[in-house]
Structure formats: C-alpha cells, structure tokens
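For reproducibility, we list the full input for the zinc ion complex.
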Amino acid sequence: MKCRMCGFEFDENKLENRGCVACGKHSNCNQVHCPRCGFGNHPELDEEFEFINKLKEKLRNRKKSTN
Ligand SMILES: [Zn+2]
Ligand SMILES: [Zn+2]
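The corresponding predicted structure, in tokenized form, follows.
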C-alpha cells in the first residue's frame, strides 16, 4: 500500500503487527503504520474516506441558512 502521509510504498503484509510496534495501541489499532514515517494508514477506510470527502464537499457547497 501507499502511505497517505509521505507517499512511501510498502507491503503491509510483511510488516509485523502492521508496523504497530511503536504506536502503543496494539490491540485496538487497526491501522497500518508506514515503516518510513510511522503514520497510521487505514486500509479498510478507503471508501469511507471518499465518502467523507464527498460529504465535506457537500457541506462546503451548502450555504448556512441558520443564524
Ligand atoms: Zn498502531
Ligand atoms: Zn509514511
């Protein structure tokens, strides 16, 4: 996969504990940590990311009618 933070490409399947040695969350961490910068990537949330981005766009386009 490709790290969202630094763009470094790595094989998440070759990482021990998904690279989660240093983050300290361990049991409840479902992120894949970039071996280069340590950023926690969410491989499962790709679709949600897009969903959120679209939602943000909607919110941005929507004028505040309240107030
Ligand atoms: Zn972690
Ligand atoms: Zn990275």
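The chain has one helix and two strands. The two ends are 44 Å apart (CA to CA). Both points were considered when choosing residues for closer inspection.
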